[in-house]
Structure formats: C-alpha cells, structure tokens
C-alpha cells in the first residue's frame, strides 16, 4: 500500500525533525519493508542509519538501488565510513563516470585513495574537486590530510589554517593543525591546540567526583594532591610519565594512574607517591591532569623537553633472573619489534612485514623478539630464522620486558611501546619511522629530543621501508663488527 509507506515515511521524517532520530528508524524501516524499491525511502533510512553509526546496515539498504549517481554517492560514502576503501573507490568512480565534475565525489574519492596509500592520486583527486568548487569546505581539510600523509606538514598547516578561517570550531581541523604544528616543532601553539582532541569521538575525559579540577599549569600545587592519568596508549604513558617528577617538584603529592601492564614497571618512578591502576580505590585529590596534557601544563617547548637519559629502571632481581635465562653473552644482542598484531590501521601503517624486516637478522648477532603479540603467520615463520630467540611467551608485563631489555645491547623497533620503553631506560634504540610519523618524532632529524639514546631511521617516501632497512642494515653491520657490549654496562 503506497499510502501506508508514505505515512510511515512522513512519521519517520517528523521524528527526525524533532531530534528523535533513533525512534524514527522504526517507521522508516517499516516503510522500507513495504516499498524496498522506493529510492526516496531508502535514502532517508540509510542517512538516518548512518547518523546513528550503523553504516553497515545503510550499505545494505542502498546496495539494491545504487544505480544512479545520487544514490551511488550515498552508497560510496557509507562504504568509506566503514573503511571499505577499495569498494568505495569503485563506487565513486561509477559516480564520476556519469558526472565527471561532481566535486563532492572527487573530494571523498581522494580520501578513499588516501586510505589505500595512493597519495599522489588522492592529491590529484582533491585538487580536481577544488578546481571545480574552490570553496568546498571538506576538500580544504582533506587536502591538508593528504599533504600530511606525504610528509608536507608546512603546506598542510597553511591549508588547515585556511579551512579553520571558515570553520574555527571544527574539531578534526583543529586536531590536525595541532599535530602539524607539533611535528614542525611549534610546541607553543601546537600543545594548546592539542587539547581539542578531547572533542573527538571516542575520547573520554576523566571526570572525577567531588571538587577536583583539571590542572593545566595555572594553579599552585604546593600541599595539593594531583592524579596524573594515562589518557592514550602504553607507549604514551611511558613517554609522558617523566613529567611526574616535575609535577612533584611543584610541591604536589602525585598519584599516577596507568594501565595494568605498567604497574610493576612504574612502581618506583621518581616523583610518584602512589601508583594506581584499574580496580584500585582512588583517594581524594585536588587536581587531575592527563599525561599528554602535561607538556602544555609544564610549559614545554622544543628546547626545554625534560629528557633525562634514564628515568625508568628495570627491577634488579628480574634483570638477574633474565641474565641467568639468557646465559653468557657471546655475540651482540639485539631486541626486535617489527609489527603489532593489531588490525588498527594506524598500527598497521607503522608495521614492517617480517620477511622484509628479517634482512636485519645476521649470523654474527643474537636476535631476541621483544614484542609480546605476534601474528600467527609471523610466529610460524620465526622457526625458520635460526639466530632468532623468541622471548614473547615470557613478556607477561612491561617489568619483565624491561628486565629482558636490560640484558640486551640494542633495540630495533618500529614506532611502538617497546621503543618508548627502551628510550626511557636509556638503552640504545633504533626507531624505524613511517613517512608520516607521530608528532613526537618531529621531522627531518635522526635523533630525538625526548630520548637521548634513540636514533631515528625515516622513510624517504611513503611506503619506502626498503630504504629504511638499507640504512639500518648498514648500521647493523657496523654494530655487529664492534662486538658485544661488556656485561658491566648493564
């Protein structure tokens, strides 16, 4: 009955206009069930599903009618939101085959290409969009994203500033500009703008009960108690835990809240009065601060990064137990970390496939795996490398990993928590970086102001791990020729 489908559609649209979009899905779904061929009903239902984060359902609603450029564009956008980028690209190309000057399709097609690491094609696509529609707001920010992926952060910053002139409260633009500025060493503006990250979806600010307040450097801490808490990953917590000593020096009693795998490692961190983790009761406190807001709160600039050579120490008893386990040192010992087993796109971008990384495994060094999580295929392949000793089964937390590392001479790692751990321990660490690195690694330098013992090896072009591995292999040959470090240096 067409009339009933129309009534259900009108009911759903009315609920949407009242801000009751979740409720509207019931009549819209009923309308769609009665008239699945109706393009207008399908589009309204799909758009409502996408607004509720149900992109996979939206794709299935649109798939049967994705035949004209209007519906196909919605279909492509839903696929892109699901990071089904290859399918989205094909759909955008079908839209553009029918209407080549569709700026919105060219703009979003650029993001699909970016997700597929086809950076120059992505830049060409967004430039075509801007040539057709110079004021297309999303294209300004998307062009900046692509420039950042190409390592052209200074240009990206210009485009982000241009986009923010019209959209000053756009969260993603502000966060992207903050990271571009931080990569360029502009900590004064970058750190302040980095606080926009709290408005991103999925970020959960710490909201304590009682009268505790966020501390960002303005309040006097003498005689006060402050909770510093890990707001991002394990490596981030290790890197920025160094600030506990600076906060304690301001007269505060410091309670540090970190992830459970870091409990034993950071138990004796300088400046911490009490270490807390999930499940612990948190006594009353006056202030709180996320770890990644501490550089802002402490007024850090590029030239004033607190960088003690060693601020994390392995437990002496664990170090001794690992020394017994590893036995006498005969050849130089190198710990390696090549890839997270995670499917997260950012972590996969930083990863190096084991068959490529394995060119660093030499017969004149002993190689120790110091990554805990290993993909099944990589674990099977490790058996074929006779000079490699897999320690992963015994790396139950970061205290064990630190004790193992203390018995090694060098760590070679992609951008991962183990790299931060080695740097915090003052161990020589070679960090292999993607062309578009995290902001803390800055640009164009082979050292790190955060970790004096670190040496950075960077991709010269997007995806160029072979160039990185060529540099590391040459350095490794020199390292191996020097022989093992004396046991007394531990």
Within CATH, the superfamily of the largest domain carries the name Glycogen Phosphorylase B
Shape: globular
Strand-residue proportion: 5-15%
Q: Helical percent range? A: 40-55%
Structural class: alpha/beta
The profile of the biggest β sheet is: 6 strands, parallel
Radius of gyration: 26 Å
* Number of distinct beta strands: 11
The averaged pLDDT comes out at: 89
Query: How do the strands line up in the largest sheet?
Result: 8-7-6-9-10-11
Note the gap between the termini. 81 Å
Number of domains: 3
Spans of at least 5 consecutive residues with low confidence: none
| CATH-defined fold name of the largest domain | Rossmann fold
- CATH-scheme architecture of the largest domain: 3-Layer(aba) Sandwich
The DSSP helix count reads 22
Please give the CATH class of the largest domain: Alpha Beta
Describe this structure in words.
This protein has helices at residues 2-17, 21-34, 39-51, 55-62, 69-81, 85-98, 103-115, 119-132, 137-149, 153-166, 171-183, 187-193, 234-240, 243-248, 294-297, 316-326, 345-350, 354-357, 376-382, 398-406, 417-425, 465-481; strands at residues 213-214, 225-229, 253-257, 274-276, 287-290, 333-337, 366-369, 388-390, 410-414, 429-433, 454-458. With 490 residues, it is an alpha/beta fold. It has three domains: 2-167, Alpha Horseshoe (Serine Threonine Protein Phosphatase 5, Tetratricopeptide repeat), CATH 1.25.40; 213-304, Rossmann fold (3-Layer(aba) Sandwich); 316-489, Rossmann fold, CATH 3.40.50. The strands form two sheets. Strands 8-7-6-9-10-11 form a six-stranded parallel beta sheet, with helices on both faces. Strands 1-5-2-3-4 form a five-stranded parallel beta sheet. The relative contact order is 0.07.
């Amino acid at each position: 009955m067409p009339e009933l489908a129309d009534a259900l559609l009108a009911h759903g649209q009315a609920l949407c206009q009242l801000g009751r979009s979740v409720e509207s899905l019931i009549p819209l779904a009923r309308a769609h069930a009665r008239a699945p061929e109706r393009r207008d009903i399908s589009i309204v239902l799909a758009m409502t599903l996408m607004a509720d984060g149900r992109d996979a359902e939206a794709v299935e609603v649109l798939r049967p009618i994705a035949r004209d450029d209007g519906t196909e564009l919605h279909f492509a956008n839903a696929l892109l939101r699901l990071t089904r980028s290859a399918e989205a690209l094909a759909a955008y190309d079908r839209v553009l085959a029918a209407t080549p000057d569709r700026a919105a399709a060219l703009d979003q097609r650029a993001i699909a290409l970016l997700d597929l690491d086809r950076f120059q094609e992505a830049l060409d696509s967004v430039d075509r969009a801007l040539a057709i529609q110079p004021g297309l707001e999303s294209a300004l920010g998307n062009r900046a994203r692509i420039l950042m992926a190409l390592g052209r952060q200074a240009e990206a910053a210009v485009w982000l500033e241009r986009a923010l002139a019209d959209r000053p409260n756009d969260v993603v633009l502000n966060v992207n500009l903050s990271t571009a500025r931080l990569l360029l060493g502009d900590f004064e503006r970058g750190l302040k703008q980095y606080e926009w990250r709290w408005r991103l979806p999925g970020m959960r600010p710490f909201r304590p009960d009682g009268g505790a307040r966020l501390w960002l450097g303005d309040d006097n801490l003498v005689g006060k108690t402050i909770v510093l808490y890990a707001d991002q990953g394990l490596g981030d917590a290790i890197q920025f835990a160094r600030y506990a000593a600076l906060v304690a020096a301001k007269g505060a009693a410091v309670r540090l809240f970190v992830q459970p795998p870091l409990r034993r490692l950071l138990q004796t961190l300088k400046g911490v009065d009490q270490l807390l983790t999930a499940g612990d009761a948190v006594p009353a406190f006056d202030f709180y601060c996320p770890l990644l807001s501490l550089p802002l709160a402490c007024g850090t600039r590029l030239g004033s990064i607190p960088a003690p050579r060693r601020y994390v120490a392995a437990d002496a008893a664990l170090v001794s137990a690992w020394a017994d386990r590893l036995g006498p040192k005969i050849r130089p010992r190198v710990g390696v970390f090549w890839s997270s087993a995670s499917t997260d796109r950012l972590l996969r971008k930083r990863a190096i496939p084991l068959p490529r990384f394995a060119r660093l495994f030499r017969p004149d060094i002993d190689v120790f795996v110091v990554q805990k999580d290993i993909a099944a295929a990589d674990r099977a392949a490790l058996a074929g490398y006779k000079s490699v000793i897999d320690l992963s089964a015994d790396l139950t937390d970061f205290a064990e990993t630190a004790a193992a590392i203390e018995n090694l001479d060098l760590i070679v790692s992609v951008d991962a928590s183990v790299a931060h751990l080695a740097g915090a321990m003052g161990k020589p660490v070679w960090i292999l970086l993607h062309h578009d690195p995290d902001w803390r690694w800055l640009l164009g330098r082979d050292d790190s102001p955060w970790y004096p013992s670190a040496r950075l090896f960077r991709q010269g072009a997007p995806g160029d791990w072979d160039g990185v591995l060529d540099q590391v292999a040459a350095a490794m040959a020199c390292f191996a020729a020097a022989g093992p470090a004396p046991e007394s240096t531990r």
